[in-house]
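Risk register update: the risk of archive-format incompatibility is retired. Evidence:
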Amino acid sequence: MDKNISSIEDKWYGKPYYSLDAYFKNVYGQKIYKIAVDAGLSCPNRDGSLDDRGCIFCSKFGSGDFAVKAGDVKAQIEAGIAKFNKSVGEKYVIYFQAFTNTYGDVEYLRKIWTEALEYESVVGISIATRPDCLGDEVVALLKELKEKFLRPDASSAEDIGSKFIWIELGLQTIHESTAKYIRRHYELQIYEEAVLKLGKMGIPYITHIILGFPKETKEEMLETVFYVEQGIMDYDIHRQIKPFGIKLQLLHVLEGTDLAADYKDGAFKTMEMDEYIELIVEALQKINPEIVMHRVTGDGPKSILIAPTWSANKKVVLNTLHKTMKEKNARQGDYSIMLW
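Archived output:
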């Protein structure tokens, strides 16, 4: 076997792509557990600023269906930590997931993000948001917290006192017709501007992509993947601001959403598992091998999942993906164009 391939497989812990679990084990030498919390924030797509219906696919929990339900953010963190024990793991990432987590009073954001970062067992925080919700005050706060918690003299990210801050940007698609259909309410340029803001501060970003939207072809979905994978050029410093991570999410139809109404009316069909697996394999082959894959599928809450029902068995989906890639001798980055 090629030595380079062997070293990649070691780095990826036997998977055919660079998973978030592998990244954590490489950096911290152990498994890191993610605790999803609901900070009680809203979204400009729900409070009337842009819309009052939310994105067409979004549940009433604003993608925070798996968040710990236990009072305020501090209580949720403590409840999440209590679920684990030292024989399983003792380091955590706090994931601000529900709704738009930079959309709120800046003093409240400072409080909840600082509270999370101050836990000794917390290695960092990941903040899910919209690209159009990174105003000057929020950007200044992110810079302040980065300077406070990410020590410039730290020899590695696992050093005590050095914590990371990640921003997850909900892009979903680069295609304008789909963006209008899902009621995204911002143009692609806004995403590019958000990436440049984060790049100038040195804050890693993760881009969320949804695959399987009605009327999008396989080629169009892969165009979104390729666009995100390439990053955004900062012409001031002549450098490509590349994503730290990518989330590939299967489109789920959840009860109570406007997408569910369209599905029940027969407006579209969801992807079959073999179709999705084929798409994911091709997408991964086009993604640079240094990009961390934070997600390659996704599983909506079974209690409100309408379709596709096969996605509820995440273990089967991932095992099928790994088996298929092994049979095809396929790996992340096989056909990546190294523009950065």
